[in-house]
What we know:
TIM Barrel
Amino acid sequence: MTPIFRFEGIYTPVVTPYHADGAVNWEALADVVDYLVENGVHGLISGGSTGENYAQTVAERLEIARFTKDRLGTRLPFVMGTGAMLTGDSIALALGGREMGADAILLASPPYAVPTDRENALNALAIDKAANLPVMLYNYPGRTGTMMGEDFLDRVGRSRNFCGIKESSGDINRVHLLAREYPHIALGCGMDDQALEFFAWGAPFWVCGGSNFLPREHVALYDACRRDGDFARGRRIMSAMLPLMRVLEQGGKFIQTIKYGVTLNGIPAEAVRAPLKGLNKDDKRVLEQVVGVLTRTVAGIQAEG
Protein backbone atom coordinates (compact mmCIF):
# COMPACT_ATOMS: atom_id res chain seq x y z
CA MET A 1 0.00 0.00 0.00
CA THR A 2 1.49 3.34 -1.04
CA PRO A 3 1.30 5.84 1.85
CA ILE A 4 -0.52 9.09 1.19
CA PHE A 5 2.10 10.97 3.22
CA ARG A 6 5.65 10.09 4.23
CA PHE A 7 6.72 11.03 7.73
CA GLU A 8 10.49 11.38 7.50
CA GLY A 9 13.08 13.05 9.69
CA ILE A 10 12.95 14.92 12.98
CA TYR A 11 9.49 16.12 14.00
CA THR A 12 9.56 18.58 16.90
CA PRO A 13 6.55 18.76 19.25
CA VAL A 14 6.75 22.51 19.79
CA VAL A 15 6.75 23.96 23.30
CA THR A 16 4.36 26.76 24.23
CA PRO A 17 6.23 29.74 25.75
CA TYR A 18 4.28 31.67 28.39
CA HIS A 19 4.65 34.97 30.17
CA ALA A 20 4.85 34.87 33.96
CA ASP A 21 1.08 35.33 34.20
CA GLY A 22 0.42 32.25 32.04
CA ALA A 23 -0.50 34.11 28.85
CA VAL A 24 1.04 32.78 25.64
CA ASN A 25 4.24 34.58 24.67
CA TRP A 26 3.57 34.90 20.95
CA GLU A 27 6.88 36.58 20.15
CA ALA A 28 8.82 33.76 21.79
CA LEU A 29 6.70 31.15 20.00
CA ALA A 30 7.52 32.80 16.67
CA ASP A 31 11.21 32.68 17.60
CA VAL A 32 10.98 28.96 18.47
CA VAL A 33 9.39 28.18 15.10
CA ASP A 34 12.05 30.14 13.20
CA TYR A 35 14.87 28.60 15.27
CA LEU A 36 13.69 25.07 14.52
CA VAL A 37 13.37 25.71 10.79
CA GLU A 38 16.79 27.36 10.64
CA ASN A 39 18.43 24.46 12.48
CA GLY A 40 17.28 21.69 10.24
CA VAL A 41 14.33 19.83 11.72
CA HIS A 42 11.97 18.25 9.21
CA GLY A 43 8.50 18.96 10.61
CA LEU A 44 6.63 20.64 13.48
CA ILE A 45 3.82 19.37 15.69
CA SER A 46 1.49 21.75 17.53
CA GLY A 47 -0.74 20.65 20.39
CA GLY A 48 1.25 17.71 21.72
CA SER A 49 1.81 17.04 25.41
CA THR A 50 5.22 18.76 25.14
CA GLY A 51 3.23 21.85 24.17
CA GLU A 52 1.22 21.44 27.41
CA ASN A 53 -2.03 20.68 25.60
CA TYR A 54 -3.52 19.31 28.83
CA ALA A 55 -3.36 22.82 30.34
CA GLN A 56 -5.09 24.53 27.39
CA THR A 57 -8.66 24.84 26.20
CA VAL A 58 -9.60 23.65 22.72
CA ALA A 59 -9.92 27.29 21.65
CA GLU A 60 -6.41 28.04 22.92
CA ARG A 61 -4.97 25.01 21.18
CA LEU A 62 -6.52 26.07 17.90
CA GLU A 63 -5.22 29.63 18.34
CA ILE A 64 -1.70 28.41 19.11
CA ALA A 65 -1.75 25.98 16.19
CA ARG A 66 -3.01 28.64 13.78
CA PHE A 67 -0.28 31.05 14.86
CA THR A 68 2.36 28.33 14.54
CA LYS A 69 1.15 27.32 11.08
CA ASP A 70 1.00 30.94 9.91
CA ARG A 71 4.55 31.54 11.14
CA LEU A 72 5.79 28.31 9.59
CA GLY A 73 4.05 28.80 6.28
CA THR A 74 5.08 26.13 3.80
CA ARG A 75 8.67 25.83 5.01
CA LEU A 76 8.09 22.45 6.71
CA PRO A 77 5.27 19.94 7.16
CA PHE A 78 2.87 20.88 9.96
CA VAL A 79 1.06 18.34 12.15
CA MET A 80 -1.96 19.24 14.29
CA GLY A 81 -2.28 17.48 17.65
CA THR A 82 -5.78 16.19 18.39
CA GLY A 83 -5.32 14.35 21.68
CA ALA A 84 -8.23 14.96 24.08
CA MET A 85 -10.48 13.14 26.55
CA LEU A 86 -13.62 13.92 24.53
CA THR A 87 -14.07 12.62 20.99
CA GLY A 88 -15.90 15.85 20.11
CA ASP A 89 -12.90 17.92 21.18
CA SER A 90 -10.55 15.78 19.11
CA ILE A 91 -12.82 16.17 16.10
CA ALA A 92 -12.93 19.96 16.61
CA LEU A 93 -9.12 20.05 16.72
CA ALA A 94 -8.85 17.83 13.64
CA LEU A 95 -11.31 19.97 11.70
CA GLY A 96 -9.42 23.07 12.80
CA GLY A 97 -6.21 21.53 11.56
CA ARG A 98 -7.77 20.81 8.19
CA GLU A 99 -9.11 24.37 7.94
CA MET A 100 -5.71 25.91 8.68
CA GLY A 101 -3.89 23.74 6.14
CA ALA A 102 -2.24 21.11 8.36
CA ASP A 103 -0.43 18.38 6.48
CA ALA A 104 -1.43 15.70 9.00
CA ILE A 105 -2.90 15.13 12.44
CA LEU A 106 -1.42 13.48 15.53
CA LEU A 107 -3.97 11.08 17.06
CA ALA A 108 -3.62 9.55 20.53
CA SER A 109 -5.89 7.33 22.57
CA PRO A 110 -8.29 9.32 24.80
CA PRO A 111 -6.77 9.33 28.29
CA TYR A 112 -8.42 7.94 31.41
CA ALA A 113 -11.34 6.21 29.64
CA VAL A 114 -9.23 3.09 28.91
CA PRO A 115 -11.23 1.98 25.85
CA THR A 116 -11.00 -1.48 24.33
CA ASP A 117 -9.16 -1.85 21.02
CA ARG A 118 -12.48 -1.82 19.20
CA GLU A 119 -13.71 1.29 21.02
CA ASN A 120 -10.39 3.02 20.55
CA ALA A 121 -10.37 2.22 16.83
CA LEU A 122 -13.92 3.52 16.35
CA ASN A 123 -12.88 6.72 18.12
CA ALA A 124 -9.84 7.09 15.86
CA LEU A 125 -11.86 6.35 12.72
CA ALA A 126 -14.43 9.00 13.67
CA ILE A 127 -11.67 11.60 13.98
CA ASP A 128 -10.13 10.42 10.72
CA LYS A 129 -13.47 10.64 8.92
CA ALA A 130 -13.96 14.22 10.07
CA ALA A 131 -10.49 15.42 9.06
CA ASN A 132 -9.60 13.15 6.12
CA LEU A 133 -5.92 13.96 6.59
CA PRO A 134 -2.85 11.76 6.97
CA VAL A 135 -2.65 10.44 10.52
CA MET A 136 0.34 9.93 12.79
CA LEU A 137 -0.87 7.64 15.56
CA TYR A 138 0.58 8.20 19.04
CA ASN A 139 0.83 5.11 21.21
CA TYR A 140 1.78 6.19 24.74
CA PRO A 141 0.11 3.88 27.27
CA GLY A 142 2.11 5.47 30.09
CA ARG A 143 0.10 8.66 29.57
CA THR A 144 -3.21 7.36 28.21
CA GLY A 145 -3.53 4.04 30.03
CA THR A 146 -4.33 2.34 26.72
CA MET A 147 -2.15 0.28 24.38
CA MET A 148 -2.93 0.47 20.66
CA GLY A 149 -3.05 -3.29 20.23
CA GLU A 150 -3.11 -5.46 17.14
CA ASP A 151 -6.91 -5.42 16.88
CA PHE A 152 -6.79 -1.61 16.98
CA LEU A 153 -4.09 -1.49 14.30
CA ASP A 154 -5.98 -3.95 12.09
CA ARG A 155 -9.18 -1.91 12.33
CA VAL A 156 -7.67 1.53 11.67
CA GLY A 157 -5.56 0.05 8.89
CA ARG A 158 -8.72 -0.11 6.79
CA SER A 159 -8.23 3.64 6.23
CA ARG A 160 -5.09 4.46 4.25
CA ASN A 161 -4.87 7.79 6.10
CA PHE A 162 -3.21 5.97 9.01
CA CYS A 163 0.32 6.09 7.65
CA GLY A 164 2.57 6.61 10.70
CA ILE A 165 2.84 5.79 14.38
CA LYS A 166 4.84 7.48 17.11
CA GLU A 167 5.58 4.50 19.32
CA SER A 168 6.16 5.50 22.95
CA SER A 169 5.39 2.32 24.85
CA GLY A 170 9.02 1.64 25.70
CA ASP A 171 8.51 -2.04 24.78
CA ILE A 172 11.15 -3.00 22.22
CA ASN A 173 8.98 -5.93 21.16
CA ARG A 174 6.46 -3.38 19.86
CA VAL A 175 9.17 -2.07 17.54
CA HIS A 176 9.65 -5.58 16.18
CA LEU A 177 5.90 -6.11 15.80
CA LEU A 178 5.29 -2.83 14.00
CA ALA A 179 8.29 -3.19 11.69
CA ARG A 180 7.43 -6.77 10.72
CA GLU A 181 3.63 -6.91 10.74
CA TYR A 182 2.57 -3.33 9.95
CA PRO A 183 5.07 -2.02 7.38
CA HIS A 184 2.33 0.15 5.79
CA ILE A 185 2.28 2.25 8.99
CA ALA A 186 5.61 4.08 9.14
CA LEU A 187 7.39 3.42 12.41
CA GLY A 188 8.37 6.53 14.37
CA CYS A 189 10.52 6.74 17.48
CA GLY A 190 8.70 8.13 20.49
CA MET A 191 11.14 6.87 23.14
CA ASP A 192 14.23 9.03 22.95
CA ASP A 193 16.60 6.56 24.60
CA GLN A 194 15.65 3.92 21.99
CA ALA A 195 16.22 6.08 18.91
CA LEU A 196 19.18 4.01 17.68
CA GLU A 197 17.17 0.80 17.94
CA PHE A 198 14.22 2.34 16.07
CA PHE A 199 16.50 3.48 13.26
CA ALA A 200 18.08 0.02 13.08
CA TRP A 201 14.58 -1.36 12.49
CA GLY A 202 13.96 1.10 9.69
CA ALA A 203 12.04 3.85 11.47
CA PRO A 204 11.98 6.87 9.12
CA PHE A 205 11.05 9.50 11.70
CA TRP A 206 11.65 10.56 15.29
CA VAL A 207 9.34 12.78 17.37
CA CYS A 208 11.64 14.17 20.04
CA GLY A 209 10.95 16.87 22.61
CA GLY A 210 14.66 17.57 23.08
CA SER A 211 14.90 18.82 19.52
CA ASN A 212 13.17 21.98 20.74
CA PHE A 213 16.55 23.14 22.04
CA LEU A 214 19.11 20.73 20.53
CA PRO A 215 17.79 20.33 16.97
CA ARG A 216 21.16 19.98 15.27
CA GLU A 217 22.29 17.17 17.57
CA HIS A 218 19.05 15.24 17.00
CA VAL A 219 19.36 15.76 13.25
CA ALA A 220 22.98 14.54 13.47
CA LEU A 221 21.83 11.19 14.87
CA TYR A 222 19.10 10.92 12.25
CA ASP A 223 21.53 11.73 9.44
CA ALA A 224 24.12 9.23 10.67
CA CYS A 225 21.63 6.37 10.86
CA ARG A 226 19.02 7.10 8.21
CA ARG A 227 20.80 9.20 5.61
CA ASP A 228 24.27 7.66 5.77
CA GLY A 229 23.62 4.22 7.27
CA ASP A 230 26.64 4.79 9.52
CA PHE A 231 25.55 3.10 12.71
CA ALA A 232 29.07 3.19 14.17
CA ARG A 233 28.87 7.00 14.12
CA GLY A 234 25.26 6.77 15.23
CA ARG A 235 26.24 4.77 18.32
CA ARG A 236 28.82 7.39 19.26
CA ILE A 237 26.29 10.21 18.91
CA MET A 238 23.65 8.23 20.80
CA SER A 239 26.13 7.53 23.58
CA ALA A 240 26.79 11.26 23.87
CA MET A 241 23.03 11.95 24.00
CA LEU A 242 22.09 9.36 26.63
CA PRO A 243 22.93 11.59 29.63
CA LEU A 244 20.43 14.11 28.24
CA MET A 245 17.81 11.38 27.91
CA ARG A 246 18.32 10.47 31.58
CA VAL A 247 17.95 14.09 32.67
CA LEU A 248 14.79 14.53 30.61
CA GLU A 249 13.12 11.44 32.04
CA GLN A 250 14.16 11.59 35.68
CA GLY A 251 11.88 13.01 38.32
CA GLY A 252 8.91 13.76 36.06
CA LYS A 253 10.36 17.06 34.84
CA PHE A 254 10.37 16.38 31.10
CA ILE A 255 8.52 19.50 29.94
CA GLN A 256 10.17 21.83 32.44
CA THR A 257 13.61 20.60 31.35
CA ILE A 258 12.87 21.09 27.68
CA LYS A 259 11.52 24.57 28.26
CA TYR A 260 14.58 25.56 30.26
CA GLY A 261 16.73 24.20 27.43
CA VAL A 262 14.91 26.51 25.01
CA THR A 263 15.54 29.38 27.42
CA LEU A 264 19.28 28.56 27.42
CA ASN A 265 19.19 29.28 23.68
CA GLY A 266 17.99 32.82 24.36
CA ILE A 267 14.26 32.31 23.82
CA PRO A 268 12.25 32.91 27.03
CA ALA A 269 10.21 29.74 27.50
CA GLU A 270 10.88 28.67 31.07
CA ALA A 271 7.42 29.35 32.52
CA VAL A 272 5.01 26.41 32.75
CA ARG A 273 1.32 26.27 33.59
CA ALA A 274 -0.07 24.58 36.70
CA PRO A 275 0.06 21.96 37.95
CA LEU A 276 3.73 21.94 36.89
CA LYS A 277 6.44 24.04 38.52
CA GLY A 278 9.74 25.14 37.01
CA LEU A 279 13.15 23.61 37.64
CA ASN A 280 15.12 24.38 40.77
CA LYS A 281 18.69 25.70 40.65
CA ASP A 282 20.25 22.25 40.97
CA ASP A 283 18.19 20.86 38.08
CA LYS A 284 19.16 23.82 35.92
CA ARG A 285 22.85 23.40 36.68
CA VAL A 286 22.74 19.69 35.80
CA LEU A 287 21.05 20.40 32.46
CA GLU A 288 23.55 23.14 31.63
CA GLN A 289 26.46 20.77 32.29
CA VAL A 290 24.94 17.93 30.28
CA VAL A 291 24.14 20.19 27.32
CA GLY A 292 27.66 21.61 27.32
CA VAL A 293 29.32 18.20 27.16
CA LEU A 294 26.80 16.86 24.64
CA THR A 295 27.16 19.72 22.16
CA ARG A 296 30.95 19.62 22.28
CA THR A 297 31.06 15.85 21.87
CA VAL A 298 28.65 15.71 18.94
CA ALA A 299 30.40 18.61 17.23
CA GLY A 300 33.67 16.73 17.56
CA ILE A 301 32.19 13.55 16.08
CA GLN A 302 30.79 15.50 13.15
CA ALA A 303 34.07 17.32 12.58
CA GLU A 304 35.76 13.96 12.03
CA GLY A 305 33.60 13.51 8.91
